[in-house]
Amino acid sequence: MESTMINAARQWRLKSHPHGLPVAENFELVTEAVREPRDGEVVMRLHYVSIDPGLRLFMNPTSHSEWEDRNEEGGRAVLVGEGEPIKAWGVGEVIASRSQRFPIGTFVRDIAATASVQEYACLHEDELLAVQADVAPLPAHLGILGMTGLTAYFGMIKVAKPRAGDTVVVSGAAGAVGSIAVQIAKMMGCRVVGIAGGPLKCTWLRDELGVDVAIDYKARNLGAALREACPDGMDIYFDNVGGEMLDTCLANLAQRARIVSCGAIAEYNRTGAPYALANWFAIMSKLATWTAFNYFDYLPQSSEGIAALTEWLQQGLIKAPERIVEGIENFPAAMVMPFSGDHVGKLMLKVV
Amino acid sequence: MESTMINAARQWRLKSHPHGLPVAENFELVTEAVREPRDGEVVMRLHYVSIDPGLRLFMNPTSHSEWEDRNEEGGRAVLVGEGEPIKAWGVGEVIASRSQRFPIGTFVRDIAATASVQEYACLHEDELLAVQADVAPLPAHLGILGMTGLTAYFGMIKVAKPRAGDTVVVSGAAGAVGSIAVQIAKMMGCRVVGIAGGPLKCTWLRDELGVDVAIDYKARNLGAALREACPDGMDIYFDNVGGEMLDTCLANLAQRARIVSCGAIAEYNRTGAPYALANWFAIMSKLATWTAFNYFDYLPQSSEGIAALTEWLQQGLIKAPERIVEGIENFPAAMVMPFSGDHVGKLMLKVV
Same domain, yes or no, for A85 and A168? Predict the structure, then answer.
């Protein structure tokens, strides 16, 4: 292997743990050389970095994270210490390799957010998956075929298990996970109610994704809107938000409802006491089940999810919009967009 | 069939819906004739009536009950209106019959609390199960082999699914359900922590039922006691209490914990706002599952549970203590004992 020494690669590091919503001062852009790969390692040139609300959890000083301590089945994502690179998923091309599995020119994505927010990542082959760049453009491998799409797929198919005719409510329905989840539920023959903030997202959910009812929680009383949209209660609540929205949904469960949680965006930037759930007794009175899961739970079955999502994508049965922010230098601005932006679908940073 | 007309049978009725803990004024003891059984019906002379905390839920004016609307699989227990007989499970003998399945002399128990708090019940055969009075004394058919024992059995075996080595925490551990649940968990090779109120119950849990740690929540800070008793967190939390106790347990879950709820005694007499769960995010951070279930869910599999519990009972592997209150006239006093009493195991009223 010839030397591919790169002397000036940009990398975002955590300067200080955010208190609440991250601000530019929490991050630091440094430039340094990329180290040579050792046996089994490659250097990946990142093309896109995934900007997910859950990244915020990695930035906490101590554990309060569904991602932590999750190395049982090969996946692992740990907290970021001050001065360390910001964890994030990425997709890119192998430009130097001491791995049989990933020769130079292979397109790869990382399994557990170790690619990080940087231009080049030196990673072990066990941290990577090959992506079929001919099957879908690179951003799709980070979105619908990556962590967020697989979260929607496994959360809906394996955890929520929708039956035709079920009323399925999805919060964060215009987000990277929610937008895929609502479309899968529609394909399963469900009546789908999407909750999102703002008229743009709601119109998009109705007109582009075909949800039966889109509720703009910023414009209406959510409880009243849910009672109207789900007169017989919800059979499935697919939760990306947590907190007060979860509480309001608990008050509107159908008998034997399944609550599936893969995120709680409302909680990630909370600095005070946690929101306390008043309506938990509905779990009892409705004989409901509440299951939290994440993408790592289904890593061993990734190929099943990727195959199904690829087929739907190629047949035009599912849409996977992306919002791409250009330039690694814009990471701090991009990092607040999941919490305040008006974009729909998957958010990512274009590095190259 | 000769006439077995009984002209003066005592029956407890709901005079007014309780506000908080039931008081004597909420109930009324009336005397009236028992009607003749019609085709498919029998008259059952009640020997014992089961006094369960969950009966309190039947006394609410409106639905807030895990028992309500539960007639899918043959079980049904509905709210009691003012002037109606108090719902309760009972065991007794058939003294008049127009049922092929249950001739005179058969011992029976009811499926869905329609026996009620009375001396005689005229019930349809579909509301009844035969009990083997030669296998265990009548009270056992109401306790360990009845609703509460089956709740413990199915909740532990089919819902919680303990694995050897699991740390299992049971609240209300000295109660009718909890005392069976802790013993099943011990038989499955688990480390068992029982939570109960008062030194008598805790000593009994340790010395008689063999739990590894008994926590007197009235004497100690529960959170501190749980951290000490479960340094690696709890794999299973079997909840009979709900409210603040559930909240404290949520703060001490192990990764992938299973929470199983079959009751929430702390909530049954609540008159103000519901207790709000502050630690619900632990469901997310620990990738936990919370399942509420009740006895009706497993009615079709009752015989499996009865067979297993009978065998354990006959082999002396499980204890099923009963506290028997004599005399149907003492129902109002008995009805508050589940919420304040110092008894262990199954509480029932001896009618005959």
Answer: no
Q: In Å, how far is A341's CA from the nearest CA of chain B?
A: 24
Q: Is the pLDDT of residue A127 over 80?
A: yes
- The residue whose two tokens read 């009718």 is B176
Contact A281 B242 (CB under 8 A): yes
State if pTM tops 0.80: yes
Query: Are residue B202 and residue B280 in the same domain, yes or no?
Result: yes
Q: Does B313 reside within a domain?
A: no
**A98 and A38 housed in the same domain:** yes
Phi, psi of B97 (to 5 degrees): -145, 135
- Asked if the C-beta of B293 comes within 8 angstroms of chain A's C-beta atoms, the answer is yes
**Chain A residue with the nearest C-alpha to that of B57:** A285
Token output for B127: 């509301």
Question: What is the DSSP-derived secondary structure letter of residue B158?
Answer: I
Nearest residue of B to residue A292, measured between CA atoms: B287
Distance separating alpha carbons of residues A186 and A164, to the nearest angstrom: 9
Prediction ipTM score: 0.91
The neighbour count for residue A291, using CB atoms within 10 Å, is 21
How many structural domains is chain B composed of?
2
Residue A290 contacts B, CB cutoff 8 Å? yes
A85 and A210 within one domain: no
| B64 interfacial to chain A (CB closer than 8 Å) | yes
Q: Residue A24 maps to which CATH number?
A: 3.90.180.10
pLDDT digits (tens, 9 = 90+) for B181-237: 999 999 999 999 999 999 999 999 999 999 999 999 999 999 999 999 999 999 999
Strand-strand pairing, B107-110 and B128-130: antiparallel
Residues in chain B within 8 Å Cβ distance of A287: 66, 70, 292-294, 297
On whether residue A159 sits in a domain, the answer given is yes
* pLDDT tens digits for range B68-126: 443 333 333 478 999 999 999 999 999 999 999 999 999 999 999 999 999 999 999 99
DSSP secondary-structure letter at B277?
B
Q: Do residue A280 and residue B274 have CB atoms under 8 angstroms apart? A: yes
- Its domain, for residue B202, covers 149-296
